[in-house]
Amino acid sequence: MPITTTSPRGRAFLRGHEGNPLTCYLDPVKVPTIGTGFTMRSRAVKASLARLGITKLVPGKTKITAAQSDAILLDVLAEEFEPAAVKGSPADRKQNQMDAATSVVFNLGTGAMGWQWAKLWRSGSLRAAAEYLGSHYNTAAGKKLPGLVRRRKEEADMFLNGVYAGTKAVKEATPVAPDTPDDDVKEAQQILSAKGFDPGAIDGWMGDKTAAAVKEYQKAHPHLTADGVLGPATLSQLRRDASAVKEVVAKGASSSVGAGALAFAAGLPWGWIAAGVAIAVVGYVVYRNRDVIQRWWNTRRGNEVVV
């Protein structure tokens, strides 16, 4: 019979990459997320959360239990993502291919089964499909993310060779440095250092000093539990923290230039109009990044947040 469901190993792989934060957080592109990458963008997630009485995901406030997260994962895979993987793949798919496809659509959306990698799969070009998957679809908001680069490569290896990598989305302190630096840890160390938290050497090792810096950052952030563990929620907030100032500057400048040009062409007092538009846009961007500002204020004041 054709394979139509994700194996336990496939679900473990998926959760290894997605993590399982039980308190809602904002992902790098500001989408409220909880559990194993659950967002309200998925109709199946919305239905499962509604059965728990949850109709809105509020960062730092909405919480679920580990058992509820497990149940939601099974629901959404069966209702939305596994059918998409089956529909967009050949009937003779193997279990490792099904597991890889489920991971892809869970992360990128069901439309991913219509993309080039899946077209190559359907044409019978398995190696070409794996190579394409392993080298594409690894950016968020226009930026290539180390975690997505690694995930696509591991999905490609699973798809082609049946290798289930042991990636862990959660990084805890270890007494010995890893043989290969962890790109996510290194990225976090760089951001922590830039924000005034001392993680020690920028070496990709989640040692005691980096864990302590992570914990100090978490204590000040309104959406994070201060446990010293670098997981998807904390890494997402660090990335947002790093990009917030750039967003204010870029959007404020671009909006003022555009408004000024239009006002000038219409013979209006372009300077005042441009300034007004820039203030409004900056205000909007500041509102969207209010948790980052709250983190900064708490850090300055030495306030500790309880989530």
From TrEMBL:
Q: Which UniProt keywords apply?
A: Antimicrobial, Bacteriolytic enzyme, Glycosidase, Host cytoplasm, Hydrolase, Membrane, Transmembrane, Transmembrane helix
Instruction: Please give the start and end residues of each transmembrane region.
Output: 261-287
Q: Could you confirm whether the keyword NADP appears in this record? A: no
Keyword Transmembrane assigned to the entry: answer is: yes
Q: Which GO terms describe its molecular function?
A: lysozyme activity
Q: Might you name a Gene Ontology BP term for this protein?
A: peptidoglycan catabolic process
Recorded hits in InterPro entries, A to Z, give:
Bacteriophage_GH24, Endolysin_autolysin, Glyco_hydro_24, Lysozyme-like_dom_sf, Lysozyme_dom_sf, Peptidoglycan-bd-like, PGBD-like_sf, PGBDSf
EC annotation from Swiss-Prot or TrEMBL: 3.2.1.17
Q: Which reaction does it catalyse?
A: Hydrolysis of (1->4)-beta-linkages between N-acetylmuramic acid and N-acetyl-D-glucosamine residues in a peptidoglycan and between N-acetyl-D-glucosamine residues in chitodextrins
Name all Peptidoglycan binding-like domain ranges.
Answer: 182-238
Q: Which family does it belong to?
A: Belongs to the glycosyl hydrolase 24 family.
Q: What is the name attached to this protein's record? A: Lysozyme
Question: What organism is the protein native to?
Answer: Endobacterium cereale
